[in-house]
Design brief:
By secondary structure, the protein is mainly α. It contains 10 helices and 4 strands, in the order H-H-E-H-E-E-E-H-H-H-H-H-H-H. Helix content is 66%, strand content 5%. The radius of gyration is 22 Å and the shape is elongated.
Length: 313
């Protein structure tokens, strides 16, 4: 049985999720790194003294980990939306006669949703996809591919815009921004540590100098990024998509339009600019990148989304 919640309940729920994520993400990261150091420190150590020395190196690094986690949170707040738009190659849409139709569509849906009209960005790609980002409804942006504007009927495009407007209204955009930028930067830090300090690290088995520890820290960050973080993201995102579909259909009073749009989008959702940005692809209305045959997909199966929308008619 589907649980129905109003917009304000979605907002309150997401505010608590944001608070929990801000607390959980750095805590989970530090615990994972500690366990990683604990396990790797046990391997190859022959004396209790060596083992204690190994663990002491972790606690020497702990303050830096806390500082980095705090910095990641601040960075995601200050410029997370700009980073996402830049990764997608999105360009600000000009408010001129050529783009009058899209401006009118976004303004009308924003009015129905009761939120300020977001900035509109265009991604020069003939495929069909879209996403929303920003810290709040007042600073939100919607990015649309040129293909989705050309290939969808006006009512279908309204349905897509309404879906993204629902993410803005429900504050999903803030939560997604934390997750996407946080996971992305953790992975980037891991790669940087391995590439910079991996070459200078001594190859001795028991060489537990600071450079060795930084290399191990890099491996721990990458493992967290690829093994743990996807489950956190999946748990958050799947429910959001169902909520945004339902809320968007409520804004337009036309669930069939969004269902029809999803059918067309699912045929050609690939945005080339996002091929190398897995986290950015998860922000789209349809994620074109499949993981483990869909096991770790951040979006529910499109057939199930369409079925639920048509069940609302």
């Amino acid at each position: 049985m589907i649980e129905h919640k109003n917009v304000y309940q979605h907002i309150a729920e997401n505010n608590w999720k944001i608070f929990g994520l801000v607390c959980l993400f750095p805590i989970a990261l530090i615990i994972f790194i500690y366990l990683f150091f604990l396990i790797t420190g046990t391997l190859g150590t022959e004396t209790n003294e060596e083992y204690q020395q190994w663990i002491s190196y972790f606690w020497d690094l702990a303050p830096w980990l806390i500082l980095v986690c705090t910095g990641l949170t601040i960075l995601s707040v200050v410029c997370g939306d700009k980073m996402m738009l830049s990764f997608a190659g999105a360009q600000l849409c000009r408010n001129d006669a050529e783009h009058l139709q899209i401006y009118r569509a976004v303004e009308n849906v924003a009015l129905a949703a009761g939120v300020p009209t977001p900035k509109i960005y265009l991604i020069d790609d003939d495929s069909l996809n879209a996403f929303a980002t920003g810290f709040s409804p007042q600073t939100a942006s919607i990015a649309l591919t040129t293909g989705i504007i050309k290939k969808l009927k006006p009512l279908e495009l309204d349905g897509v815009i309404a879906h993204e407007m629902a993410h803005i209204k429900n504050r999903d955009i803030r939560l997604n921004m934390y997750v996407i930028t946080g996971i992305g930067i953790v992975g980037l830090m891991g790669e940087i540590l391995i590439r910079i300090f991996g070459r200078t690290r001594s190859r001795g088995r028991n060489d537990k100098n600071p450079l060795s520890m930084l290399v191990l820290l890099g491996f721990a960050l990458l493992l967290f990024r690829y093994l743990i973080a996807p489950f956190i993201h999946m748990a958050i995102s799947r429910k959001q998509e169902f909520q945004a579909d339902a809320t968007g259909a409520f804004f337009t009073r036309n669930p069939e339009a969004l269902a029809s749009a999803l059918e067309k989008i699912s045929v050609d959702p690939r945005v080339e600019a996002l091929d190398k940005s897995e986290q950015m692809a998860t922000a789209c209305i349809y994620n074109p990148l499949k993981k483990l045959g869909g096991l770790l997909d951040t979006h529910p199966p499109v057939g199930e989304r369409i079925k639920r929308l048509r069940g609302m008619i």
